[in-house]
Amino acid sequence: MEARHKGRGRPGIGRRSFLKIAGGGLGASALLSGLPRGWVGGVHASQAPEVREVKFGIIALTDCSPLVIAHERKLFEKYGIRSTVVKLASWASIRDNLTSGEIQATHMLLGMPLASSMGLLGSPRKPMVIPWLLNRNGQAITLKSAWKGKVQGDPKALKPLADEARKAGTPLTFAMTFPPGTHAMWTRYFLGSGGIHPDREVGLVTIPPAQMVANMKVGKMDGFCVGEPWNARAIQDGIGFTAITTQGIWKDHPEKVCAFLEEFAEKNPRTVKAILKALHEASVWLDVIENRVEQAAIISRPSYVNCPPETILGRLQGRYDFGDGRKLDDPHYLIFHRRNCNYPQRKYAVWWLTQFRRWGMVEGPPDYEGVAKKVMRTDLYEEAMKEIGFAHGGPNGEPETFFDGMRFDPKQPEEYAASFAIHGLKGPQR
Predict the structure, then answer these.
(1) In 169-199, which positions are buried (b, 16+ CB within 10 angstroms) versus exposed (e)?
(2) Quick one: the chain helix, strand, coil %, rounded to 5?
(3) Count of CB atoms within 10 A of residue 390's CB?
């Protein structure tokens, strides 16, 4: 660690030099007498992480990259964290391992910490916090190959197909990765925009990301929503095509987060901030487009995504082949740092709560402001960035507009939740 923290010790004196000098007769107490009080091995004791051994959970998706790159490039180590990255099979196992303390930080769907903090949809009530957004964009809705030329980015084209299947007694089936998660909400929003009620007119099933392609291959579903590289893999395997990317639904939408138990973050704020500092460096590196070849090579390994790097790379570079003849160089491809990507905007939590409300996952209006403030820890983010001198873009409370023209105003969440023609609202409305 001798070269890691410049200016916090005598220049040029590392561990080997220290031992040599000490062995030559100069006592350790004399040698250390000129160093700042509280200095221990390159960092001030008061600044060191409270917990140094940290296990990070990931799912086999391209957007786990910031955690993997911070580990592989030894950025966690730079900030005093000895990291282990553990690939888990499903989002439910991610939640359960974080809840039990088996992992201390994790790649997670944005809606999951909200659901766990509120005890919704089968989640045990366990407060979690989000001090960091890992990425924006980079997901898609894949449909079976039989619908090429019939359905593209307009969900209204799905409506007659859904009606026909329902009348025949074989409703269409769509897969997402976890009920309160991002993919579930993109699927619901897309279907609802096409006049299809996701809880009444089609079947929704939960499938882990890496199993999506295999399940479509054997005919278990008509479409799915997942992160990359599994949409690109469905095209490569000839079983599906991309109907629409999620950034086509909501440009620069929030996606995965780095989440912690609230209890862990309260007890170990320096540990959390050390992790955020490492993630910042990793995210800056990831958004240099020339680094994406190396990124694809690293995350493609069996211990991470376990997919050929060439399957991953195209969409990482913003080059989209939809598999039905359409091609696009998308300026809103997967990003990890730019456009104030990582700030844990509270309005995003509010939007998720409006969707919980819209689909009857809560009864009556939730505490939009209170839950968002408790889960989205802007304080931890801002403190960590201040300590490394990074000037972030700050909070953004501006309205957002979606592909169907619907406008979300975070100052009027209940009115927004009740404004949709397709919904499952429960309980009193205000």
Answers:
(1) eebbbbbbbbbbbbbbbbbbbbbbbbebbbe
(2) 40, 15, 40
(3) 14
Greatest CA separation for the chain: 91
Measure the CA–CA gap between 113 and 214, rounded to whole angstroms: 28
Of 46, 116, 383, nearest in space to 257 by CA: 116
> What sign has the CA pseudo-torsion 167, 168, 173, 179?
positive
Cα(117)–Cα(359) distance, integer angstroms: 18
Alpha helices in 62-206 (DSSP H): 65-72, 75-78, 91-100, 111-118, 159-167, 182-193
pLDDT exceeds cutoff 70 at 27: no
Dihedral sign of CA atoms 191, 197, 201, 203 in order? positive
In 3D space, the residue among 293, 422, 275, 302 whose CA is nearest the CA of residue 355 turns out to be 422
- Is residue 30 predicted with pLDDT exceeding 90? no
CA distance 392 to 55: 27
3-state secondary structure (DSSP) of residue 352:
helix
* pTM, entire model: 0.89
159, two tokens? 């409506």
- Give the per-residue pLDDT at 12: 38
